[in-house]
Amino acid sequence: FQDGMETMAMGEEPFLHNGADSQPPNPINSIPITLPDPSISNLKEVDEAIQNNAKNIYTQNELKEVLLQTNYLDKLITVFDACEDLESTSDLHILYSIMKRIVLLNDNFIL
């Protein structure tokens, strides 16, 4: 293709590459991602928020940024320690789910 134009797949709109870091435009309105401050009482909310934002590539990238900028893993580790001290297996299972979703984001900087 000429002039930096490429099509991503049959039937999709082409986009112009402006450089190596260029990404296709985000079709979803950019709403800033916020995650609840993790605590034992809201682990299900945290899990749901991470699950909902890990569903597509656009929100995944924003989720990664939020996780890095807020040191979210450090906060989760503090909650993990509290759950372990209380021997709260149900909360530990939810923490496992949260950590699994974060690992599946496949970002070396987060881990």
Characterize the structure shown:
The protein has 111 residues and is mainly alpha-helical. The protein is 49% helix and 4% strand. It contains four helices and two strands. Strands 1-2 form a two-stranded antiparallel ribbon.
What's the structural blueprint in terms of helices and strands?
Elements: E1 5-6, E2 15-16, H1 43-53, H2 57-69, H3 72-86, H4 89-103
Antiparallel strand pairs: 1-2
Mean pLDDT: 82
Q: What is the rounded Rg?
A: 18 Å
Beta fraction = under 5%
Low-pLDDT runs of 5+ residues are 1-8, 12-22
For the biggest β-sheet, the strand order reads: 1-2
- What is the chain-wise order of helices and strands? EEHHHH
Secondary structure category: mainly alpha
Distance between the termini: 38 Å
Beta strands, count = 2
Q: Estimate percent helicity.
A: 40-55%
> Biggest sheet: strands, sense, closure?
2 strands, antiparallel
Number of helices: 4
Label the overall shape.
Answer: elongated
Q: How would you summarize what this structure contains?
A:
With 111 residues, the protein is mostly helical.
Please tag this protein with its features:
two-stranded antiparallel ribbon, mainly alpha, disordered N terminus, 49% helix
